[in-house]
Design a protein that fits this description.
Helix content is 31%, strand content 28%. The chain is an alpha+beta fold and 126 residues long. This is SCP-2 sterol transfer family protein.
Length: 126
């Protein structure tokens, strides 16, 4: 069984084009540490067209964290910016690319869409 991280990156690579990144140009590299070694995931984004490889190549934004935390990000159990603020991950380069990449991460598993949750309570009764 593949890790959530592997499933996330292979899914992004398989889709090839992400509408949420149509105005984005740049590259990200994720250095994920586990068991005394580091796995690399490189994403090249060109106007929504995304190419994913496992190469250790230079990138505009380099994110370093441990594999366990990134698995939680890939399943929506953790948040990238909150993890960055807690010093559980580091970023070098263009932080904006990480913020834009976060659009591709799933939300929390228990999250619900806000409209059905309010059930019309935001409207005034007439």
């Amino acid at each position: 069984m593949a890790s959530p991280t592997t499933e996330l990156f292979t899914g992004i690579g398989r889709r090839g084009h992400e509408a949420l990144l149509e105005k984005v140009q740049g590259s990200l590299r994720f250095d994920l540490e586990h068991d005394q070694q580091t796995d690399h995931w490189h994403l090249a984004i060109s106007r929504g067209d995304v190419t994913v490889t496992q190469e250790d190549r230079p990138a505009d934004c380099v994110v370093r964290t441990d594999q366990g935390l990134f698995d939680k990000l890939a399943t929506g159990e953790s948040n990238a910016i909150a993890s960055l603020l807690r010093n559980r991950m580091t970023v070098e380069g263009n932080l904006r690319l990480l913020v834009l990449f976060e659009r591709l991460l799933p939300g929390p598993p228990t999250a619900r869409h806000p409209r059905p949750a309010t059930r019309g309570r935001w409207r005034r009764d007439r």
